[in-house]
Amino acid sequence: MNVTGPLPADTLFYRANNEDFDVVLAMYHDQGCIPIKLLGFDVGVNITIGLPIIRTSVDHGTAYGRAGSMLGTGNPGSLIEAIKLASRMAQWSSK
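The structure corresponding to this sequence follows.
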């Protein structure tokens, strides 16, 4: 693995968005989720590493306040990306 860091967050996500890196590892939820939401709110995926299972989730949270009240207004993009990534991870782990 070619690993670099630690790097300052103020330029890290700019560089990651320009495809200088394949992955960015954030030590805390808000360090990673805030810039990801800004860069791709509808497609961001949160991955929890270090678990004995694969865990991906939408990056924007549950949108619980919308549940049942604004039918048809949600965007499933982040959920779709989380499911696709979990599927790819499952394939990688079976090799």
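The chain has a mean pLDDT of 85.
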